[in-house]
Design goal:
The chain is built from 13 helices and five strands. By secondary structure, it is mainly alpha-helical. The longest helix has 30 residues. The relative contact order is 0.14.
Length: 323
């Protein structure tokens, strides 16, 4: 039985945090046996905010190392970078020519940037078209997303339907695969974990960095013996990710009945996060010692993705009259 195609991208815009891991990266690893997966590094997308060649190169290779360290198997997936598939930008132009500006002005990212009076570049405005090209050129069936990304898949479907109507059946209509929890990974301040909020815990953090981040979590002034509401506690919210069920039940019981202070709760959390991150961090350091192997993995994945994209573009070029 032929596996369905799954595609998902992680932008090379800095080091990942545990929100990135639980929200998306872990999901891609978990699904690598179920689907024919095309995880990719959308470096063209990153150009909307990253405009340093050195940073782009460094962050791109780092994302690949990060993925390999958490268990992505290059024998099972096609890991590639977007710019190794130039047909994507060719298809983006084709889609630009059948998409109206008012439609793109509905995109959440554009509306949000406009509402904040940001200096919006054309790349931000055209972002959904490039993403649609990424998805459709690989005949993608499934795109794992959080709630805030569902619109992008819907726009890809709309564009595919419009092209198919104008030029004949060409593109599959991809489906969103909602990744539960993506929008609720809490940061150290209780907001959604985000680099822009400065509330992250890095996925490969050193022990002292983990300790500092957890100790910085604000708590109320209740004493050790006071009853506490675990659902109102930012420390307990992170326990849900890193503590065992038995441990979580015991912590919750002692919160409600009184008898556990925030210092003890943080100490347990620090140990659990360190126990989780340490083997990943050490594996990452080993992988980073062999950058040539990392680049070879990217090259191989790029060849597969580019070949598939070229086959699709031959069909597109013929249907729009370029051949």
């Amino acid at each position: 039985m032929t596996k369905k195609i799954l595609l998902s991208g992680v932008k090379p815009t800095g080091r990942p945090h545990i929100g990135n891991y639980f929200g998306m990266m872990k999901q891609i690893v978990d699904m690598q046996d179920e689907y024919e997966s095309f995880p990719f590094i959308p470096d063209y997308h990153a150009l909307t905010s990253v405009q340093s060649a050195d940073k782009m190169r460094e962050d791109t290779i780092n994302v690949v190392i990060d993925f390999l360290a958490i268990g992505l198997d290059p024998e099972k997936v096609n890991l590639f970078k977007q710019s190794d598939v130039p047909q994507v930008t060719e298809l983006t132009w084709v889609f630009n020519c059948i998409t109206k500006m008012p439609y793109l002005m509905r995109a959440h990212a554009f509306k949000d940037a406009e509402a904040k009076n940001k200096d919006i570049n054309i790349g931000v405005f055209d972002y959904p078209i490039l993403m649609a090209a990424d998805i459709l050129i690989q005949d993608t069936d499934v795109v794992p997303v959080g709630k805030d990304q569902i619109q992008h898949v819907e726009m890809a479907r709309d564009i595919a339907e419009k092209f198919n109507k104008l030029f004949g059946e060409t593109f599959k209509l991809p489906q969103s695969k909602l990744v539960s929890g993506l929008e609720v990974i809490p940061g150290t301040d209780g907001q959604k974990m985000s680099k822009s909020y400065g509330n992250t815990i890095e996925l490969f953090a050193e022990d002292e960095e983990i300790h500092k981040a957890i100790m910085s979590i604000p708590t109320d002034s209740k004493e050790i013996l006071d009853s506490k509401d675990p659902e109102e506690c930012n420390v307990f919210a992170l326990h849900k990710l890193f503590s065992t069920e038995d441990e979580l039940g015991e912590i919750k019981k002692r919160y409600v009945e009184g008898g556990m202070g925030y210092k003890e709760s943080k100490d347990i959390l620090i140990k659990n996060i360190q126990d989780f991150i340490t083997p990943l961090r050490e594996k990452r350091k080993e992988i980073a010692k062999n950058p040539e192997r990392v680049l070879e993995i990217l090259k191989q994945g790029g060849e597969v993705a580019r070949q598939r994209a070229e086959e699709k573009m031959k069909d597109v070029r013929e249907k729009i009259g370029l051949i």
